[in-house]
Write a structure and sequence with these properties.
13 helices, elongated, 42% helix, seven-stranded parallel β-sheet
């Protein structure tokens, strides 16, 4: 699943994403609840319409079942009642119960919704791991009960989240308890991984979970994005995964290819380009050849498509006629040359 944290995949429209054959994307429940907020989403007719997405939608947080319990741990206090959040924007406290977490996701309108779980970092050891696992089971019961009372069970699919850290015995206990509740959920997620644990431990926990999860329910490994991780998880019986990795690395100029990642250093390239454009302009001014530089630059940069009309008019106002020695067509409007690359 591509991750559209705040109901948008940066740099792509919903239509572009759909054209790639993507049928399920992920929104971040915590962020949507803060901004734009439930009233805006209600007015828009739900998150699908808000972002123009016509296919399936899942709501969660990248490090938990639907809420930012690890990344924002300094703003969060866990009790049996729920998670007490302090808004990182306003400092306002909010108690998020399992029931409220389901109600929020009902309003968002996601096709797949996640239970509220008590999640700790995958590197955490000691009694806190067992406490979080047991609480996640109890919170699952409350999520199931509220979801069934809502009458939305047939239109929104609730997933349980298996916890237990890197302890095989705790994982087994959680699996045993959650599979007993199979009739109350539409699928199962494997949570609490991809937090810095060794890969050899990671895959063994995945294998342990998929070996005990029902075969007639989707198995979702949360936060998995590297190509090799995805293929290993699929081989071990995982059906679904999500991660910000492909979109985040793209923003840092890394292209993922079948021969491995390709560092394009796009930002460096673009800054170099602009520095060259301005550096050459400075040299031309000092040499008294700036009008010639303008003509040569525009001929090279725009000559194949035509000069933007506004550029021609603007330069004419200072005595530089781009058409003085050429028959390049004039393009009305902004005449932007650049666009997002296709590859």
């Amino acid at each position: 699943m591509p991750v559209a944290t705040q109901a948008a995949i940066k740099g792509l429209t919903a239509e572009q994403v759909e054209s790639l054959g993507v049928s399920l994307i992920l929104n971040n429940t915590y962020h949507l609840n803060l901004r734009p907020g439930l009233e805006v989403l209600k007015a828009a007719g739900g998150a699908h319409k808000f972002q123009g997405w016509k296919r399936n939608l899942l709501t969660k947080i990248q490090d938990s079942g639907g809420f930012q319990l690890v990344s924002l741990s300094k703003f969060t206090t866990i009790t049996e009642e729920g998670a007490l959040f302090e808004s990182p924007f306003t400092g306002e406290p909010t108690m998020l119960t399992p029931e409220e977490s389901i109600s929020i996701q009902h309003t968002i309108g996601a096709d797949i919704i996640m239970q509220l779980d008590d999640v700790v970092s995958s590197l955490t050891v000691g009694p806190r791991v067992g406490e979080a696992m047991e609480r996640s089971v109890r919170w699952l019961d409350r999520c199931i009960a509220h979801h069934e009372r809502s009458g939305k069970k047939d239109t929104q699919n609730l997933f349980a989240i298996v916890q237990g850290g890197l302890d095989p015995e705790l994982r087994d206990r959680c699996l045993d308890e959650m599979t007993k509740r199979k009739d109350g959920v539409a699928g199962f997620a494997i949570g609490g991984l991809s937090g810095g644990e060794e890969k050899d431990v990671f895959w063994r926990i995945i294998e342990r979970c998929t070996g005990k999860l029902p075969e007639d329910r989707p198995r979702y490994s949360m936060g998995i994005g590297f190509a090799e991780d995805l293929l290993v998880c699929v081989a071990l019986g995982v059906d679904m995964a999500d991660c910000v990795f492909p979109t985040r690395t793209a923003r840092f100029g890394v292209a993922l290819t079948h021969r491995g990642p390709l560092n394009l250093t796009i930002t460096l390239h673009n800054i170099t380009f602009q520095a060259q454009v301005m550096g050459r302009a400075r040299s031309a001014i000092l040499n008294g050849t700036f009008p010639d530089y303008l003509r040569s630059f525009f001929a090279e940069y725009f000559g194949d498509v035509g000069y933007p009309e506004w550029c021609v008019n603007a330069l004419r106002s200072v005595g530089v006629d781009l058409l003085e020695t050429s028959n390049v067509p004039i393009i009305p409007g902004q005449g932007a040359k650049w666009e997002y690359a296709d590859s």
